[in-house]
UniProtKB/TrEMBL annotation:
This is ABM domain-containing protein. InterPro entries: Dimeric_a/b-barrel (IPR011008). It comes from the Eukaryota. Residues 1-23 form the signal peptide. Keywords: Signal.
């Protein structure tokens, strides 16, 4: 009984690891030089009377996978979510990779409104976003 529990726990852990390894092991990895990206930044304000809130579980498990499913047909290649320290002006910085800036513009024109409608479900602040190009990576 105890062994079975341990074995199933180990198995569950192993499949979590193999899943995340698989997710990163793509032959055409996003974020290569020449890729374009949309950078969304979520402002954070913390003072005596105000505290920005951000639900990373919802964002990483619901919002971004949903956006990816909407944007993939327009050429979205993948994304990176990063979190910044509390003293930074932004709490979260997300990069969404495409081959061209136009692909992102088309995806946003088609789905931007429904995506921004859901921001209040996980963030107290609305994210400005900017388009940029990957110019160098050394990893
Ligand atoms: C705290 O931040 C809020 C939101 O930006 C602002 O309205 C308020 O004036 C700030 N309060 C202080 C004491 O700085």
């Amino acid at each position: 009984m105890q062994f079975q529990t341990l074995a199933s726990l180990l198995f569950a852990t192993a499949s979590v690891f193999s899943q995340s390894a698989k997710a990163q092991d793509t032959s055409c990895a996003p974020g290569n030089v020449g890729d374009w990206f949309s950078m969304a930044v979520y402002p954070q304000i913390h003072n005596e009377t105000y505290d920005s809130t951000f639900d990373m579980d919802y964002y990483s498990q619901q919002q971004m996978p949903w956006i990816y499913s909407l944007f993939k047909p327009f050429g979205m290649k993948g994304y990176t979510i990063t979190t910044l320290e509390r003293s930074a002006p932004y709490s979260v910085l997300t990069l969404m990779y495409f081959d061209t800036a136009e692909q992102f513009e088309e995806a946003l024109a088609a789905h931007g409104e429904e995506i921004f409608d859901r921001v209040p479900l996980f963030s107290s602040e609305f994210p400005p976003h900017y388009i940029g190009e990957v110019t160098n990576t050394t990893i």
